[in-house]
Amino acid sequence: MNKKAAKNNNPLNTAPWRYYLVLAVVALIYISLMARTAYIQIIEPEMLKKQGDLRSLRVAANTVQRGSIVDRNGAELAISVPVETVWADPKIIMDNNAIAMTKHWQALADVLDQDINKLIARVVKNPRKRFIYLERKISPAMASYIKELKIPGIHLRKESKRFYPTGEISAHLIGFTNVDDKGIEGIERMYDDLLTGTGGAKRFRKDAKGRKIEIISVEEPEQAQDITLSIDQRIQAIAYKELKGAVQAFKATSGSVVVANIHTGEILAMTNSPSYNPNNRRNTAIHRFRNRAITDIYEPGSTMKPLTALTALEFGSAKANSIINTSPGWMRLGGRRVSDPINRGKLSIEEILVTSSNMGTTKLALSVPKDYLLTKFFDAGFADDTGTNLVGESVGMMHDRSRWSKFELATLSWGAGLAITPAQLTRFYMALANGGIKRKLTIVKNSDKTTDPEDQERIFSAKNSLAITHMLEAVVDEHVPKAKIDGYRVGGKTGTSIKAVAGGYGNDYVALFAGIAPISNPEIVVVVVINEPSGDLYHGGEVAAPVFSRVMKGALRVLNVAPDAQKSRTASKHIKLTHPAQKLSLIHISEPTRLRRIS
To answer: Of the candidates 70, 162, 224, 502, which lies 20 to 30 Å from 332 by C-alpha distance?
Structure first.
Protein backbone atom coordinates (compact mmCIF):
# COMPACT_ATOMS: atom_id res chain seq x y z
CA MET A 1 0.00 0.00 0.00
CA ASN A 2 2.74 2.44 0.91
CA LYS A 3 4.53 1.79 -2.34
CA LYS A 4 1.37 2.47 -4.28
CA ALA A 5 0.68 5.73 -2.48
CA ALA A 6 4.21 6.97 -3.05
CA LYS A 7 3.88 6.16 -6.68
CA ASN A 8 0.70 8.26 -6.96
CA ASN A 9 2.34 11.31 -5.27
CA ASN A 10 5.37 11.44 -7.55
CA PRO A 11 5.46 14.93 -9.24
CA LEU A 12 6.81 13.36 -12.39
CA ASN A 13 3.44 11.77 -12.87
CA THR A 14 1.76 15.32 -13.12
CA ALA A 15 0.28 15.98 -16.54
CA PRO A 16 2.92 17.90 -18.57
CA TRP A 17 0.36 20.22 -20.27
CA ARG A 18 -0.32 22.01 -17.00
CA TYR A 19 3.30 22.96 -16.67
CA TYR A 20 3.45 24.27 -20.16
CA LEU A 21 0.19 26.19 -19.69
CA VAL A 22 1.55 28.06 -16.69
CA LEU A 23 4.77 28.75 -18.53
CA ALA A 24 2.81 30.11 -21.52
CA VAL A 25 0.68 32.38 -19.32
CA VAL A 26 3.75 33.81 -17.61
CA ALA A 27 5.45 34.35 -20.98
CA LEU A 28 2.32 36.00 -22.35
CA ILE A 29 2.18 38.41 -19.41
CA TYR A 30 5.78 39.40 -19.90
CA ILE A 31 5.32 39.79 -23.64
CA SER A 32 2.20 41.94 -23.08
CA LEU A 33 4.04 44.15 -20.63
CA MET A 34 6.94 44.50 -23.02
CA ALA A 35 4.58 45.31 -25.91
CA ARG A 36 2.72 47.87 -23.81
CA THR A 37 5.99 49.43 -22.72
CA ALA A 38 7.19 49.59 -26.30
CA TYR A 39 3.89 51.10 -27.44
CA ILE A 40 3.95 53.75 -24.73
CA GLN A 41 7.60 54.72 -25.08
CA ILE A 42 8.12 54.32 -28.82
CA ILE A 43 4.82 54.49 -30.68
CA GLU A 44 2.80 56.93 -28.50
CA PRO A 45 4.89 58.54 -25.77
CA GLU A 46 3.04 61.87 -25.82
CA MET A 47 0.08 60.60 -23.85
CA LEU A 48 2.08 59.94 -20.68
CA LYS A 49 3.96 63.17 -21.12
CA LYS A 50 0.67 64.99 -21.35
CA GLN A 51 -0.60 63.28 -18.22
CA GLY A 52 2.59 64.11 -16.43
CA ASP A 53 2.41 67.74 -17.49
CA LEU A 54 -1.17 67.99 -16.27
CA ARG A 55 0.04 66.93 -12.84
CA SER A 56 3.28 68.89 -12.63
CA LEU A 57 3.45 71.63 -15.25
CA ARG A 58 2.02 75.01 -14.32
CA VAL A 59 1.79 78.44 -15.99
CA ALA A 60 1.75 81.63 -13.93
CA ALA A 61 0.25 84.49 -15.93
CA ASN A 62 1.66 87.98 -15.49
CA THR A 63 -1.24 90.25 -16.41
CA VAL A 64 -0.73 93.79 -17.68
CA GLN A 65 -2.93 96.59 -16.43
CA ARG A 66 -4.75 98.53 -19.13
CA GLY A 67 -3.16 101.85 -20.01
CA SER A 68 -4.58 105.15 -18.86
CA ILE A 69 -6.18 107.88 -20.98
CA VAL A 70 -5.18 111.40 -19.98
CA ASP A 71 -5.83 114.90 -21.30
CA ARG A 72 -3.15 117.19 -22.71
CA ASN A 73 -2.16 118.29 -19.20
CA GLY A 74 -2.03 114.80 -17.70
CA ALA A 75 -5.46 114.85 -16.03
CA GLU A 76 -6.80 111.28 -15.85
CA LEU A 77 -9.81 110.55 -18.02
CA ALA A 78 -9.77 106.73 -17.82
CA ILE A 79 -7.85 104.58 -15.34
CA SER A 80 -7.85 100.96 -14.14
CA VAL A 81 -8.52 100.25 -10.46
CA PRO A 82 -7.97 96.92 -8.64
CA VAL A 83 -11.05 94.79 -8.05
CA GLU A 84 -11.76 91.11 -7.47
CA THR A 85 -14.00 88.53 -9.11
CA VAL A 86 -15.97 85.87 -7.21
CA TRP A 87 -15.95 82.38 -8.72
CA ALA A 88 -17.06 78.95 -7.56
CA ASP A 89 -15.78 75.37 -7.86
CA PRO A 90 -19.00 73.29 -7.82
CA LYS A 91 -17.11 70.01 -7.36
CA ILE A 92 -15.41 71.21 -4.16
CA ILE A 93 -18.69 72.67 -2.94
CA MET A 94 -20.57 69.40 -3.43
CA ASP A 95 -17.75 67.22 -2.03
CA ASN A 96 -17.69 69.30 1.16
CA ASN A 97 -21.49 69.59 1.37
CA ALA A 98 -21.01 73.37 1.52
CA ILE A 99 -24.58 73.91 0.29
CA ALA A 100 -25.71 73.08 3.83
CA MET A 101 -24.12 76.34 5.06
CA THR A 102 -27.40 78.19 4.52
CA LYS A 103 -26.60 81.29 6.54
CA HIS A 104 -23.28 81.73 4.76
CA TRP A 105 -24.94 81.44 1.36
CA GLN A 106 -27.59 83.95 2.39
CA ALA A 107 -24.84 86.40 3.39
CA LEU A 108 -23.08 85.80 0.07
CA ALA A 109 -26.29 86.40 -1.88
CA ASP A 110 -26.98 89.59 0.06
CA VAL A 111 -23.56 91.12 -0.56
CA LEU A 112 -23.77 90.22 -4.26
CA ASP A 113 -27.35 91.52 -4.44
CA GLN A 114 -28.58 88.23 -5.88
CA ASP A 115 -31.38 85.83 -5.06
CA ILE A 116 -30.04 82.98 -2.92
CA ASN A 117 -32.09 80.31 -4.69
CA LYS A 118 -30.84 81.37 -8.12
CA LEU A 119 -27.30 81.58 -6.81
CA ILE A 120 -27.35 78.03 -5.42
CA ALA A 121 -29.09 76.75 -8.55
CA ARG A 122 -26.19 77.96 -10.69
CA VAL A 123 -23.77 76.00 -8.52
CA VAL A 124 -25.67 72.69 -8.30
CA LYS A 125 -26.67 72.72 -11.98
CA ASN A 126 -23.32 71.18 -12.97
CA PRO A 127 -21.93 69.59 -9.78
CA ARG A 128 -18.79 68.23 -11.48
CA LYS A 129 -17.85 71.53 -13.08
CA ARG A 130 -14.70 73.20 -11.79
CA PHE A 131 -15.30 76.89 -12.57
CA ILE A 132 -18.23 79.30 -12.82
CA TYR A 133 -18.40 83.06 -12.34
CA LEU A 134 -20.62 84.31 -9.55
CA GLU A 135 -19.91 88.07 -9.84
CA ARG A 136 -17.36 90.01 -11.86
CA LYS A 137 -15.30 92.90 -10.56
CA ILE A 138 -16.52 93.64 -7.06
CA SER A 139 -14.96 96.17 -4.69
CA PRO A 140 -12.12 95.17 -2.33
CA ALA A 141 -14.43 95.71 0.67
CA MET A 142 -16.98 93.23 -0.69
CA ALA A 143 -14.19 90.79 -1.51
CA SER A 144 -12.86 90.99 2.05
CA TYR A 145 -16.33 90.25 3.44
CA ILE A 146 -16.78 87.23 1.14
CA LYS A 147 -13.37 85.92 2.12
CA GLU A 148 -14.40 85.95 5.77
CA LEU A 149 -17.43 83.75 4.98
CA LYS A 150 -15.01 80.84 4.31
CA ILE A 151 -17.40 78.87 2.12
CA PRO A 152 -15.52 75.86 0.65
CA GLY A 153 -15.28 76.17 -3.13
CA ILE A 154 -15.87 79.94 -3.22
CA HIS A 155 -12.78 81.79 -4.40
CA LEU A 156 -11.61 85.28 -5.35
CA ARG A 157 -9.47 86.33 -8.29
CA LYS A 158 -7.71 89.66 -8.71
CA GLU A 159 -8.73 91.74 -11.75
CA SER A 160 -8.93 95.40 -12.72
CA LYS A 161 -11.90 97.58 -13.56
CA ARG A 162 -12.08 100.68 -15.73
CA PHE A 163 -12.99 103.89 -13.95
CA TYR A 164 -13.79 107.24 -15.57
CA PRO A 165 -13.10 110.16 -13.18
CA THR A 166 -14.79 112.76 -15.41
CA GLY A 167 -18.02 110.77 -15.72
CA GLU A 168 -20.55 112.11 -18.19
CA ILE A 169 -18.46 115.16 -19.14
CA SER A 170 -16.21 113.21 -21.52
CA ALA A 171 -18.24 110.01 -21.85
CA HIS A 172 -18.94 110.18 -25.59
CA LEU A 173 -15.33 110.89 -26.43
CA ILE A 174 -13.59 108.45 -24.09
CA GLY A 175 -16.09 105.63 -24.53
CA PHE A 176 -15.93 102.55 -22.30
CA THR A 177 -14.85 98.90 -22.05
CA ASN A 178 -16.82 95.72 -21.48
CA VAL A 179 -16.50 93.42 -18.49
CA ASP A 180 -13.40 91.81 -20.05
CA ASP A 181 -11.68 95.21 -20.42
CA LYS A 182 -12.07 95.31 -24.19
CA GLY A 183 -12.77 98.74 -25.70
CA ILE A 184 -16.32 99.08 -26.98
CA GLU A 185 -16.78 102.79 -27.74
CA GLY A 186 -14.78 105.96 -28.30
CA ILE A 187 -11.07 106.24 -27.59
CA GLU A 188 -11.21 102.98 -25.63
CA ARG A 189 -12.15 101.16 -28.83
CA MET A 190 -10.02 103.24 -31.19
CA TYR A 191 -6.78 102.54 -29.29
CA ASP A 192 -7.72 99.21 -27.73
CA ASP A 193 -4.57 97.41 -28.89
CA LEU A 194 -2.22 100.05 -27.48
CA LEU A 195 -4.15 100.33 -24.22
CA THR A 196 -4.30 96.56 -23.70
CA GLY A 197 -0.66 95.51 -24.07
CA THR A 198 0.40 91.83 -23.88
CA GLY A 199 0.57 89.80 -20.69
CA GLY A 200 3.63 87.73 -19.77
CA ALA A 201 3.80 84.11 -18.57
CA LYS A 202 6.16 81.86 -16.58
CA ARG A 203 6.08 78.08 -17.24
CA PHE A 204 7.48 75.91 -14.44
CA ARG A 205 7.31 72.35 -13.08
CA LYS A 206 6.39 71.50 -9.52
CA ASP A 207 6.73 68.34 -7.43
CA ALA A 208 4.06 66.46 -5.49
CA LYS A 209 4.37 68.90 -2.60
CA GLY A 210 3.78 71.91 -4.83
CA ARG A 211 7.40 73.13 -4.79
CA LYS A 212 8.94 74.64 -7.94
CA ILE A 213 11.62 72.31 -9.22
CA GLU A 214 12.18 73.64 -12.74
CA ILE A 215 11.51 76.92 -14.58
CA ILE A 216 10.89 76.05 -18.21
CA SER A 217 10.36 79.43 -19.86
CA VAL A 218 9.63 83.08 -19.05
CA GLU A 219 7.76 85.42 -21.40
CA GLU A 220 8.16 89.07 -20.47
CA PRO A 221 4.98 91.18 -20.64
CA GLU A 222 4.61 94.03 -23.11
CA GLN A 223 3.40 96.98 -21.10
CA ALA A 224 0.30 98.84 -22.22
CA GLN A 225 0.66 102.40 -23.44
CA ASP A 226 -1.01 105.48 -22.04
CA ILE A 227 -2.89 107.70 -24.52
CA THR A 228 -2.53 111.47 -24.22
CA LEU A 229 -5.42 113.28 -25.86
CA SER A 230 -5.50 116.80 -27.25
CA ILE A 231 -8.48 117.52 -24.99
CA ASP A 232 -8.10 120.11 -22.25
CA GLN A 233 -10.39 118.77 -19.56
CA ARG A 234 -10.91 122.25 -18.12
CA ILE A 235 -12.32 123.47 -21.44
CA GLN A 236 -14.23 120.21 -21.84
CA ALA A 237 -15.93 120.76 -18.48
CA ILE A 238 -16.86 124.35 -19.37
CA ALA A 239 -18.28 123.27 -22.74
CA TYR A 240 -20.32 120.46 -21.21
CA LYS A 241 -21.73 122.63 -18.44
CA GLU A 242 -22.85 125.36 -20.84
CA LEU A 243 -24.21 122.90 -23.41
CA LYS A 244 -26.16 120.89 -20.85
CA GLY A 245 -27.67 124.05 -19.43
CA ALA A 246 -28.77 125.27 -22.88
CA VAL A 247 -30.27 121.91 -23.88
CA GLN A 248 -32.29 121.87 -20.68
CA ALA A 249 -33.25 125.55 -20.83
CA PHE A 250 -34.52 125.38 -24.41
CA LYS A 251 -35.89 121.84 -23.99
CA ALA A 252 -33.84 120.68 -26.96
CA THR A 253 -33.47 117.09 -28.10
CA SER A 254 -29.68 117.22 -28.07
CA GLY A 255 -26.66 119.42 -28.62
CA SER A 256 -22.95 119.35 -29.43
CA VAL A 257 -19.95 121.62 -28.90
CA VAL A 258 -16.55 121.32 -30.58
CA VAL A 259 -13.54 123.49 -29.65
CA ALA A 260 -10.39 123.31 -31.80
CA ASN A 261 -6.97 124.91 -32.01
CA ILE A 262 -6.73 126.79 -35.31
CA HIS A 263 -3.00 126.30 -35.84
CA THR A 264 -2.63 122.58 -35.05
CA GLY A 265 -6.06 121.08 -35.65
CA GLU A 266 -6.09 119.69 -32.11
CA ILE A 267 -9.56 119.24 -30.61
CA LEU A 268 -9.58 120.94 -27.23
CA ALA A 269 -13.14 119.91 -26.36
CA MET A 270 -15.80 117.70 -27.90
CA THR A 271 -18.93 117.17 -25.88
CA ASN A 272 -22.58 116.23 -26.31
CA SER A 273 -25.80 116.45 -24.35
CA PRO A 274 -27.62 114.42 -23.16
CA SER A 275 -24.75 112.28 -21.92
CA TYR A 276 -24.48 109.18 -19.72
CA ASN A 277 -22.42 107.89 -16.81
CA PRO A 278 -19.78 105.47 -18.17
CA ASN A 279 -19.20 104.11 -14.66
CA ASN A 280 -22.79 102.91 -14.42
CA ARG A 281 -24.38 102.22 -17.81
CA ARG A 282 -27.23 100.12 -16.47
CA ASN A 283 -30.57 100.96 -18.13
CA THR A 284 -28.90 103.45 -20.50
CA ALA A 285 -30.40 103.51 -23.99
CA ILE A 286 -27.91 102.51 -26.69
CA HIS A 287 -28.55 105.63 -28.79
CA ARG A 288 -27.14 107.79 -25.99
CA PHE A 289 -23.70 106.24 -26.48
CA ARG A 290 -23.02 107.81 -29.86
CA ASN A 291 -20.76 110.83 -30.23
CA ARG A 292 -23.17 113.22 -31.97
CA ALA A 293 -20.42 115.70 -32.79
CA ILE A 294 -19.06 113.26 -35.39
CA THR A 295 -22.03 110.99 -36.18
CA ASP A 296 -25.07 113.27 -36.54
CA ILE A 297 -25.45 115.45 -39.62
CA TYR A 298 -27.42 118.68 -39.97
CA GLU A 299 -28.09 121.25 -42.64
CA PRO A 300 -25.67 124.03 -41.62
CA GLY A 301 -27.91 126.89 -42.71
CA SER A 302 -26.43 130.38 -42.86
CA THR A 303 -23.10 129.24 -41.43
CA MET A 304 -22.33 128.40 -45.09
CA LYS A 305 -22.77 131.95 -46.36
CA PRO A 306 -19.14 132.90 -45.58
CA LEU A 307 -18.05 130.01 -47.81
CA THR A 308 -20.23 131.26 -50.67
CA ALA A 309 -18.86 134.80 -50.31
CA LEU A 310 -15.32 133.47 -50.15
CA THR A 311 -15.90 131.41 -53.32
CA ALA A 312 -16.96 134.55 -55.21
CA LEU A 313 -13.83 136.34 -54.00
CA GLU A 314 -11.64 133.43 -55.01
CA PHE A 315 -13.15 133.23 -58.49
CA GLY A 316 -12.89 136.99 -58.97
CA SER A 317 -16.54 137.67 -59.73
CA ALA A 318 -16.61 139.93 -56.68
CA LYS A 319 -14.16 141.84 -54.56
CA ALA A 320 -14.11 142.54 -50.85
CA ASN A 321 -15.48 146.05 -51.46
CA SER A 322 -18.07 145.08 -54.08
CA ILE A 323 -21.72 146.13 -53.86
CA ILE A 324 -24.48 143.66 -54.70
CA ASN A 325 -27.92 144.88 -55.74
CA THR A 326 -30.51 142.69 -54.01
CA SER A 327 -33.55 144.70 -55.16
CA PRO A 328 -36.46 144.07 -55.24
CA GLY A 329 -35.70 141.61 -52.43
CA TRP A 330 -36.84 138.50 -54.28
CA MET A 331 -36.38 136.55 -57.50
CA ARG A 332 -37.69 133.43 -59.18
CA LEU A 333 -35.43 130.59 -60.24
CA GLY A 334 -37.10 127.86 -62.27
CA GLY A 335 -40.47 128.67 -60.80
CA ARG A 336 -39.17 128.72 -57.21
CA ARG A 337 -38.92 131.87 -55.12
CA VAL A 338 -35.80 133.15 -53.40
CA SER A 339 -36.28 136.13 -51.12
CA ASP A 340 -35.24 138.21 -48.13
CA PRO A 341 -37.71 139.30 -45.43
CA ILE A 342 -37.47 142.84 -46.81
CA ASN A 343 -35.93 144.59 -49.77
CA ARG A 344 -32.42 145.37 -48.53
CA GLY A 345 -31.33 147.13 -51.71
CA LYS A 346 -27.63 147.43 -52.38
CA LEU A 347 -25.38 145.55 -49.96
CA SER A 348 -21.68 145.07 -49.57
CA ILE A 349 -20.45 141.52 -49.04
CA GLU A 350 -19.95 142.34 -45.37
CA GLU A 351 -23.54 143.59 -45.15
CA ILE A 352 -24.77 140.44 -46.88
CA LEU A 353 -23.18 138.42 -44.09
CA VAL A 354 -24.35 140.81 -41.36
CA THR A 355 -27.97 140.77 -42.56
CA SER A 356 -27.70 137.11 -43.66
CA SER A 357 -29.23 138.01 -47.01
CA ASN A 358 -30.40 135.04 -49.04
CA MET A 359 -30.69 137.26 -52.12
CA GLY A 360 -27.13 138.52 -51.81
CA THR A 361 -25.73 135.03 -51.21
CA THR A 362 -27.69 133.62 -54.14
CA LYS A 363 -26.34 136.24 -56.54
CA LEU A 364 -22.81 135.61 -55.36
CA ALA A 365 -23.25 131.86 -55.87
CA LEU A 366 -24.71 132.26 -59.35
CA SER A 367 -21.90 134.62 -60.34
CA VAL A 368 -19.42 131.74 -60.46
CA PRO A 369 -19.51 128.58 -62.60
CA LYS A 370 -21.41 125.70 -61.08
CA ASP A 371 -18.40 123.37 -61.02
CA TYR A 372 -16.26 125.98 -59.30
CA LEU A 373 -18.83 126.53 -56.57
CA LEU A 374 -19.26 122.81 -55.96
CA THR A 375 -15.50 122.26 -55.94
CA LYS A 376 -15.06 124.80 -53.17
CA PHE A 377 -17.69 123.06 -51.06
CA PHE A 378 -15.91 119.74 -51.58
CA ASP A 379 -12.54 121.37 -50.87
CA ALA A 380 -13.93 122.58 -47.55
CA GLY A 381 -14.29 118.92 -46.56
CA PHE A 382 -18.05 118.49 -46.82
CA ALA A 383 -17.91 114.95 -48.18
CA ASP A 384 -14.95 113.64 -46.25
CA ASP A 385 -14.03 112.67 -42.72
CA THR A 386 -12.13 115.20 -40.65
CA GLY A 387 -9.12 112.98 -39.95
CA THR A 388 -9.84 112.15 -36.32
CA ASN A 389 -10.31 108.43 -37.14
CA LEU A 390 -12.91 108.27 -34.39
CA VAL A 391 -15.22 105.28 -34.63
CA GLY A 392 -18.53 106.05 -36.33
CA GLU A 393 -17.56 109.38 -37.89
CA SER A 394 -19.87 110.44 -40.72
CA VAL A 395 -18.64 112.03 -43.94
CA GLY A 396 -21.82 114.07 -44.22
CA MET A 397 -24.08 114.35 -47.27
CA MET A 398 -22.92 116.45 -50.19
CA HIS A 399 -24.28 115.36 -53.56
CA ASP A 400 -21.77 114.88 -56.36
CA ARG A 401 -24.05 114.92 -59.37
CA SER A 402 -23.70 116.56 -62.77
CA ARG A 403 -27.09 118.30 -62.93
CA TRP A 404 -27.88 121.13 -60.53
CA SER A 405 -30.68 123.61 -61.05
CA LYS A 406 -30.12 127.28 -60.30
CA PHE A 407 -32.51 127.03 -57.39
CA GLU A 408 -30.54 124.11 -55.93
CA LEU A 409 -27.32 126.10 -56.24
CA ALA A 410 -29.05 129.04 -54.55
CA THR A 411 -30.20 126.92 -51.61
CA LEU A 412 -26.75 125.35 -51.37
CA SER A 413 -25.24 128.83 -51.05
CA TRP A 414 -27.09 129.44 -47.78
CA GLY A 415 -26.59 125.96 -46.36
CA ALA A 416 -29.58 123.93 -47.54
CA GLY A 417 -29.32 120.79 -49.63
CA LEU A 418 -26.26 119.46 -47.80
CA ALA A 419 -25.77 117.98 -44.34
CA ILE A 420 -22.56 118.00 -42.30
CA THR A 421 -21.34 117.12 -38.82
CA PRO A 422 -20.34 119.70 -36.17
CA ALA A 423 -16.76 118.46 -36.58
CA GLN A 424 -16.82 119.20 -40.33
CA LEU A 425 -18.18 122.69 -39.68
CA THR A 426 -15.36 123.22 -37.17
CA ARG A 427 -12.81 122.18 -39.75
CA PHE A 428 -14.09 124.70 -42.31
CA TYR A 429 -14.05 127.65 -39.89
CA MET A 430 -10.61 126.57 -38.75
CA ALA A 431 -9.40 126.79 -42.37
CA LEU A 432 -11.05 130.19 -42.74
CA ALA A 433 -9.34 131.53 -39.62
CA ASN A 434 -5.82 130.28 -40.34
CA GLY A 435 -5.56 131.86 -43.78
CA GLY A 436 -7.19 129.26 -46.02
CA ILE A 437 -5.27 126.15 -44.95
CA LYS A 438 -7.36 123.06 -44.31
CA ARG A 439 -5.93 120.81 -41.62
CA LYS A 440 -6.96 117.44 -40.33
CA LEU A 441 -8.55 117.42 -36.91
CA THR A 442 -6.76 115.32 -34.33
CA ILE A 443 -7.86 113.98 -30.98
CA VAL A 444 -4.33 112.99 -29.87
CA LYS A 445 -1.95 115.60 -28.46
CA ASN A 446 0.62 116.87 -30.91
CA SER A 447 3.76 116.79 -28.77
CA ASP A 448 6.04 118.72 -31.14
CA LYS A 449 3.41 121.39 -31.88
CA THR A 450 3.96 121.03 -35.62
CA THR A 451 1.61 119.84 -38.33
CA ASP A 452 2.56 117.18 -40.86
CA PRO A 453 2.53 118.78 -44.33
CA GLU A 454 0.49 115.81 -45.55
CA ASP A 455 -2.23 116.69 -43.06
CA GLN A 456 -2.79 120.19 -44.41
CA GLU A 457 -3.82 121.71 -47.73
CA ARG A 458 -4.31 125.26 -48.95
CA ILE A 459 -7.85 125.61 -50.27
CA PHE A 460 -8.31 129.42 -50.13
CA SER A 461 -6.00 132.37 -50.51
CA ALA A 462 -4.78 134.03 -47.33
CA LYS A 463 -5.95 137.47 -48.48
CA ASN A 464 -9.56 136.48 -49.13
CA SER A 465 -9.76 134.29 -46.03
CA LEU A 466 -8.59 137.21 -43.90
CA ALA A 467 -11.14 139.50 -45.52
CA ILE A 468 -14.04 137.13 -44.74
CA THR A 469 -12.75 136.60 -41.19
CA HIS A 470 -12.89 140.36 -40.53
CA MET A 471 -16.38 140.50 -42.02
CA LEU A 472 -17.44 137.86 -39.50
CA GLU A 473 -16.36 140.24 -36.75
CA ALA A 474 -18.86 142.76 -38.12
CA VAL A 475 -21.54 140.04 -38.02
CA VAL A 476 -21.05 139.63 -34.29
CA ASP A 477 -20.66 143.34 -33.56
CA GLU A 478 -23.76 144.42 -35.47
CA HIS A 479 -26.06 141.41 -35.51
CA VAL A 480 -25.25 138.87 -32.75
CA PRO A 481 -24.72 140.71 -29.46
CA LYS A 482 -25.12 137.49 -27.45
CA ALA A 483 -21.94 136.11 -29.04
CA LYS A 484 -19.75 138.99 -27.85
CA ILE A 485 -17.01 138.52 -25.25
CA ASP A 486 -15.77 141.38 -23.08
CA GLY A 487 -12.18 142.19 -23.91
CA TYR A 488 -11.98 140.14 -27.10
CA ARG A 489 -12.71 140.69 -30.77
CA VAL A 490 -14.93 137.86 -31.94
CA GLY A 491 -16.13 136.80 -35.37
CA GLY A 492 -18.75 134.26 -36.28
CA LYS A 493 -21.92 133.35 -38.10
CA THR A 494 -25.29 132.12 -36.97
CA GLY A 495 -27.27 129.39 -38.65
CA THR A 496 -30.89 128.30 -38.33
CA SER A 497 -32.05 125.38 -40.42
CA ILE A 498 -35.33 123.51 -40.65
CA LYS A 499 -35.00 119.77 -40.28
CA ALA A 500 -35.85 117.73 -43.34
CA VAL A 501 -38.52 115.03 -43.20
CA ALA A 502 -39.83 112.62 -45.79
CA GLY A 503 -41.12 114.68 -48.70
CA GLY A 504 -39.85 118.06 -47.56
CA TYR A 505 -39.26 120.00 -44.34
CA GLY A 506 -40.94 119.64 -40.97
CA ASN A 507 -41.46 121.94 -38.01
CA ASP A 508 -38.25 121.30 -36.08
CA TYR A 509 -35.21 123.55 -36.15
CA VAL A 510 -31.47 123.29 -35.62
CA ALA A 511 -29.70 126.33 -34.14
CA LEU A 512 -26.01 126.77 -34.93
CA PHE A 513 -23.20 129.19 -34.27
CA ALA A 514 -19.62 128.93 -35.52
CA GLY A 515 -17.11 131.49 -34.32
CA ILE A 516 -13.47 132.51 -34.11
CA ALA A 517 -11.44 134.44 -31.54
CA PRO A 518 -9.45 136.57 -31.08
CA ILE A 519 -9.81 138.15 -34.52
CA SER A 520 -6.48 140.02 -34.34
CA ASN A 521 -4.64 136.69 -34.05
CA PRO A 522 -7.10 133.76 -34.30
CA GLU A 523 -6.43 130.92 -31.88
CA ILE A 524 -9.65 129.00 -31.29
CA VAL A 525 -12.74 127.92 -33.21
CA VAL A 526 -15.92 127.00 -31.34
CA VAL A 527 -18.95 125.40 -32.99
CA VAL A 528 -22.25 125.02 -31.15
CA VAL A 529 -25.22 123.00 -32.41
CA ILE A 530 -28.54 122.85 -30.54
CA ASN A 531 -30.86 120.27 -32.06
CA GLU A 532 -34.63 120.82 -31.99
CA PRO A 533 -35.01 123.58 -29.40
CA SER A 534 -38.61 123.96 -28.22
CA GLY A 535 -40.59 127.11 -27.63
CA ASP A 536 -40.45 130.50 -29.29
CA LEU A 537 -36.65 130.78 -29.32
CA TYR A 538 -34.94 128.65 -31.93
CA HIS A 539 -32.63 130.92 -33.95
CA GLY A 540 -28.88 130.42 -33.78
CA GLY A 541 -28.30 133.93 -32.46
CA GLU A 542 -30.69 133.34 -29.55
CA VAL A 543 -29.97 129.71 -28.68
CA ALA A 544 -26.45 128.77 -29.81
CA ALA A 545 -24.64 132.14 -29.67
CA PRO A 546 -24.83 132.53 -25.84
CA VAL A 547 -23.31 129.06 -25.42
CA PHE A 548 -20.54 130.00 -27.84
CA SER A 549 -19.80 133.19 -25.92
CA ARG A 550 -19.44 131.47 -22.56
CA VAL A 551 -17.45 128.51 -23.92
CA MET A 552 -15.11 130.73 -25.93
CA LYS A 553 -14.62 133.07 -22.98
CA GLY A 554 -13.73 130.17 -20.71
CA ALA A 555 -11.37 128.63 -23.27
CA LEU A 556 -9.52 131.90 -23.88
CA ARG A 557 -8.99 132.37 -20.16
CA VAL A 558 -7.87 128.78 -19.61
CA LEU A 559 -5.33 129.13 -22.42
CA ASN A 560 -4.21 132.59 -21.23
CA VAL A 561 -4.93 134.23 -24.57
CA ALA A 562 -4.42 137.98 -24.23
CA PRO A 563 -7.43 140.28 -24.82
CA ASP A 564 -7.36 142.23 -28.08
CA ALA A 565 -10.47 144.44 -27.88
CA GLN A 566 -8.37 147.61 -27.77
CA LYS A 567 -7.17 146.96 -31.30
CA SER A 568 -9.28 148.67 -33.95
CA ARG A 569 -11.09 146.75 -36.62
CA THR A 570 -9.10 148.43 -39.44
CA ALA A 571 -9.63 145.73 -42.00
CA SER A 572 -13.40 145.73 -41.56
CA LYS A 573 -13.58 149.53 -41.61
CA HIS A 574 -11.62 149.56 -44.82
CA ILE A 575 -14.02 147.31 -46.70
CA LYS A 576 -17.31 148.49 -45.25
CA LEU A 577 -19.61 150.47 -47.58
CA THR A 578 -22.44 152.76 -46.59
CA HIS A 579 -23.23 154.44 -49.89
CA PRO A 580 -22.74 153.41 -53.54
CA ALA A 581 -21.34 156.82 -54.40
CA GLN A 582 -18.07 155.94 -52.67
CA LYS A 583 -15.16 155.40 -55.04
CA LEU A 584 -15.23 151.63 -54.94
CA SER A 585 -15.71 148.95 -57.49
CA LEU A 586 -19.49 148.52 -57.79
CA ILE A 587 -21.30 145.40 -58.89
CA HIS A 588 -24.86 145.48 -60.12
CA ILE A 589 -26.63 142.15 -60.64
CA SER A 590 -29.79 142.45 -62.62
CA GLU A 591 -29.98 138.78 -63.55
CA PRO A 592 -29.17 135.79 -61.37
CA THR A 593 -27.06 134.16 -64.07
CA ARG A 594 -24.26 136.70 -64.40
CA LEU A 595 -22.51 139.68 -62.83
CA ARG A 596 -21.86 142.95 -64.64
CA ARG A 597 -19.13 145.27 -63.37
CA ILE A 598 -19.95 148.99 -63.34
CA SER A 599 -17.12 151.44 -62.81
So the answer is: 502
